[in-house]
Amino acid sequence: MKQPGTLLLVDDDRHVLSSMADWLREQGYPTDTATSCAEAVAAIERKPYDLVLADIRLGDDDGFDVLAHCRKNRPDTAVIMITGYGTVESAVEAIRLGAFDFLTKPLIDEELEMAIERALNQQQVIEENKTLKAQLDMRFGMENIVGNDHRMLKIYDMIDSVADTKATVLITGESGTGKSLVARAIHRRSGRRDRPFIEVACGALPETLLESELFGHTAGAFTGAIGDKPGKFMQADGGTIFLDEVATASASMQVKLLRVLQDFEFEQVGGTKTFTVNSRVILATNEDLVEAVSAGRFRQDLFYRINVINIELPVLRDRISDIPMLAEHFLKIVCSDSGKHVRGFTDDTMITLQRYRWPGNVRELQNVIERAVLLGKGDVIGVEDLPANLAAAGPVHLDAIGAQTLKQAMEAPERQIIRDVLEMNNWNRNVTAEMLGINRTTLYKKMKRLGLEEQYPIMSR
Questions:
Q1: Residue 423 has what pLDDT?
Q2: The CATH number fitting domain 317-395, selected from 1.10.10.60, 3.20.20.140, 3.10.450.50, 1.10.8.60
Q3: What is the pTM of this model?
């Protein structure tokens, strides 16, 4: 099936130019024309074309100049070079300089149309790849890490600061806080974004398999090794390798990791050849490595080697002001994936979500929202749509015991939000009031009512 596309035809023979342009238009291709390199360049500057067909000989000009201009200024435009004096050398040169194809006159209609369709099909694939990469950026980039808590704002700054370096990054935090998302965001915002991102769950594999998984093996290295296999470090060459649950690595594996992180050299299991890679290494753990070092479970030299830059992710129970934003974010994702239409959450539901302690952190919240959307019957998520353990932590209903209980239930998240913003601004009440969108008098009253006035640092009074 012919792909639509805008064409620019360049030829100094006006008769050939006119007849060929008419034929292209008859085939359904919108076609502009130019008789010289200067005219072609001017046309390309005026608007983008999907494809340029340029004769190599343009009077005193050279069609290769048109090709060079496209490669430099319109890299998404495909170029087919045409000549009546074709040689193998000129064809090779055209392709080397970036031409999509090289055709010789006299042109056969079917040959020309096939070349055009191939070029336009390739452009379509390129555009689809760009769209997919944009979707990956949205799914795994910074945009998928949600939160305005001051701790998260600092993490965003750290990601931006370290993304385009080769420094080793250690991401710490409880399970479910989003360590994999942060690792992917660092990769997607770096100059390695077009290279592989390889993730390895170190705790999911026994030591013998983990070594083979990371470094690869040679044929006959062990029973079942019928051929050479490249490891994850080799696959991540030029890109990023993310080692999750690194604290589970055995003592001997820790020695091997230390060498790789220092020299980026290793041997495959059963092999003697030394491989060198250029991989960015990001590691993650939910364990306290300082305690693990003190207990002798983790090598001190390896700890110092991986703890170059530490990004510590906060637990969800310490950033309850982010829960409404996260809940809405997951709601949109689930509705988009499932085709269900849910407008939002009742007030009681949101209070319940903010009162719960979230031992599983953000991952648990995501699972709860997905369950509520898929199993819920209404267009709003109510407390009855939540798991029983969450519903038990929810607010006591207003019609049961009166307004005072609801007011008290609301005080906890309000107090946390105000305290977080005060701490972020070093307890500067003027700046805090401005960020919260309230006047200073209202902030002072809220601080007094919520017991925050008593915690106000003496040096700031």
A1: 82
A2: 1.10.8.60
A3: 0.61
